[in-house]
Amino acid sequence: MDEATPAATTLADRALLRLSGPDVRGFLQGLVTNDVTGALPVWTALLTPQGKVLFDMLLWADADDILVDAEADRMDALQRRLTLYRLRRPITIVPEPALAVHWSRDRPSHSGAVPDPRLSALGWRWLAPPSAPATGWLAHRLANGVAEGTAELGDGQILWLECNAAELQGVSFTKGCYVGQENTARMHYRAKVNRRLVVAPDQPDDRATAHYPGLGLMVVHRRVETLGDAVLPQWLASALSAEPQPIEEDAQLSPST
């Protein structure tokens, strides 16, 4: 991750935590929504026991360590939360200031760049020493209908599947238990995602979680039958038009940890 990085690609609103120690992946596997035992990066979240979002993040592998790519303003709170769950495990959880999160709409020359694991249309992402701040990321992300961070996803108010986590590869329905798993799995099996977090033209709306007047956009939490003027990119329109039927729960749902 020491390869030279082009200028003006750093996402200044992101920061990294480094998790080191024995079985770091096993530690996270019992906490977050996605399967972290395979290829990384993945988008995932730490939830309340009721399945509501506290922190969303991307997880990267760096040899045996895990790097947590999350919003910079919430890094201290995320570090405290992970430390609380660590208990007596010999795992260190510290900031990683030597690296930054980078983004480019087009494929860069950096060999570590990968398509955003949520949606390839979001562009390319990689980790490297900091450069000048990138421009255009927020507008590009919102144009693709993708919400992230506490300002948009809330802090324990919105269910993870209502954040389009299934459609954006942010959850595994085949892994074992994690915090908030029971309610998340039940919603999936019963096809009960009645609300969605969507991007829409900015206007006064009590259901809005974030307003971006400079872009003329907002992020808003709406019932699926009243999405109205919401931005519906192909990935979301296809999911909504599929109208899935409830899935038989042949196996018992595992309780949340």
Number of strands: 11
The general outline is: globular
Q: Between the first and last Cα atoms, what is the distance in angstroms?
A: 34 Å
CATH superfamily: Probable tRNA modification gtpase trme, domain 1
CATH topology: Gyrase A, domain 2
Low-confidence stretches: 249-257
Strand content: 25-35%
Strand order of the largest sheet: 2-3-4-1-5
Tally of contiguous helical segments: 6
Main sheet properties? 5 strands, antiparallel
Just give the CATH class.
Answer: Alpha Beta
Please write the string of helix (H) and strand (E) elements.
EHEEEHEEEEHHHEEEH
> How many domains?
1
* Nearest-integer average pLDDT: 92
Q: Any idea what the radius of gyration is?
A: 18 Å
In percent, how helical is the residue content?
10-25%
Q: Which second-level CATH architecture applies?
A: 2-Layer Sandwich
SS content category: alpha+beta
Protein name: Folate-binding protein YgfZ
Keywords: Transit peptide
InterPro entries: TrmE/GcvT-like, YgfZ/GCV_T_CS, YgfZ/GcvT
What labels describe this entry?
five-stranded antiparallel beta sheet, 257 residues, disordered C terminus, three-stranded antiparallel beta sheet, 25% strand
